[in-house]
Amino acid sequence: MSIRERAGKPRSLRLAGGRVIDPASGRDAVGDLYLHEGKVADPAQFPHVQWEEIDVRGKIVAPGLIDVHVHLREPGGSHKETIRTGTRAAAAGGFTSIVAMPNTKPVADGTNTIAWLRQRIEADALVNVYPTGCISQGMAGEALAPIGSLKKAGVVAITDDGHCIQNNDLMRRALEYAAMFDLPLLDHCQDYALTADGVMHEGYWSTVLGLRGWPSLGEEIIVGRNAMLAEKTGATILCQHLSSAGSVRILREAKKRGIPLHGEAMPHHLLLTDATVQGYDTNFKMNPPLRTEADRQALLEGVADGTIGVLASDHAPHALFEKEVEFDRAPFGIIGLETELAVFAQALIEPKVIDWPTLVSRLTIEPARVLRLDQLGKGSLALGGDADVTVIDPSLEWVVDAAKFESLSRNCPFDKMPLRGRAVLTIVGGEIVWRL
Ligand SMILES: [Zn+2]
């Protein structure tokens, strides 16, 4: 397996004999896909090109996968992850485009930080990286960040991820600006009063283990607020990392009524429950926390019926010394880019909750539409579109070895887990960036 640096020279590739799945166009058939000059090409238009053939029989040829929830930790957290290492982890996981959260040090609440970030991305990133900006200054939830200037500086969305604006009037004004500038708002749904000092799901296991609970209600009440505010303002809200059955129900009702409210689910919430916290392993501590089997089942149903249209990792790197402390004191979050696809396959495909075309859709065109990345040519295999492609071997069996990750961090609850399905070839702009 290897990472290839980008040389700025797209190749003329014929991906031969794979199952080409492009949910945006409904294409799902065995055939060839041609890439030329960094774009998806029609070979009839290029009769003199010498195509370099790659045999992908038995594999899935998908639009480059998109992860809209990644923490790259730069600036200020480069002992956890950098743009360089984080985008290598993305390439190894099959992701060609990622959206970076702004809770860095300093936070990305102004145009200077965004300009700095874009330079670093240009210099260091192996895959496409789209920055986001903060909703509030300093992510303090007190005054709005300069949302119009952030949009001009190139952010694709605004979010205070890691924090949640508690003041509903401020949130309303943020959404009015977001609607005006056509920027989606990504919300980390957490009511602070209800979740104060909570470190795991409030329920049976928190009582048994003697740990402070973070109740489902702490998420649901904000999802409910967001439904009302999205309806009032017409702004698009993506409720991030949904974890509870009640959230899925509120979102389902809101979508039925045509409210521009969307939901996102993470691999860990779809595969694991709060029972895994028994060993006090801090790699099972995340925000929002792992919940009950009933919540997990509701999330699976939400993904199956399309209530939850966005799947992403919440890749949240932390150094070993930060995670190797008492459960109460450890930071929330786990890494996800390099296991995400296989964990989604384990949680969703193996038990036949959804099929591969639906999984590909939830990882490509659906998140692309919510964040308007489809307008930038991402999320599909349309002719003339960007040659971002992920080739997946759906039957490849492998065992997770966190020690071998491209990511700088190792905080992974799936270490040593046998999984099936993996990206074997990742292509960005016609260049191979990862090959297994
Ligand atoms: Zn979050």
Q: Key features?
A:
436 residues, alpha/beta, Urease, subunit C, domain 1, TIM Barrel, nine-stranded mixed β-sheet, five-stranded parallel β-sheet, 19 strands, 29% helix, 22% strand, globular, binds zinc ion
If you had to describe this structure to a student in words, what would you say it looks like?
- The chain has 436 residues and is α/β, with parallel strands linked by helices.
- Helix content is 29%, strand content 22%.
- The chain is built from 14 helices and 19 strands.
- The strands form 4 sheets. Strands 1, 2, 3, 4, 5, 6, 17, 18 and 19 form a 9-stranded mixed sheet that branches.
- Helix 8 packs parallel to helix 10.
- The longest helix has 17 residues.
- The protein starts with a strand and ends with a strand.
- Zinc ion binds next to loops.
Task: Note the topology.
Blueprint: E1 2-3, E2 13-22, E3 27-36, E4 39-41, E5 52-55, E6 60-63, E7 65-70, H1 83-93, E8 95-100, H2 111-124, E9 128-131, H3 147-153, E10 158-159, H4 168-180, E11 185-187, H5 192-195, E12 200-201, H6 204-209, E13 213-214, H7 217-233, E14 237-239, H8 245-256, E15 261-265, H9 267-271, H10 293-304, E16 310-311, H11 320-323, H12 340-349, H13 356-362, H14 365-370, E17 389-399, E18 418-428, E19 431-435
Parallel strand pairs: 2-5, 2-6, 7-8, 8-9, 10-11, 11-14, 12-13, 14-15, 15-16
Antiparallel strand pairs: 1-19, 2-3, 3-4, 6-17, 17-18, 18-19
Helix pairs in contact: 4-7, 7-8, 8-10
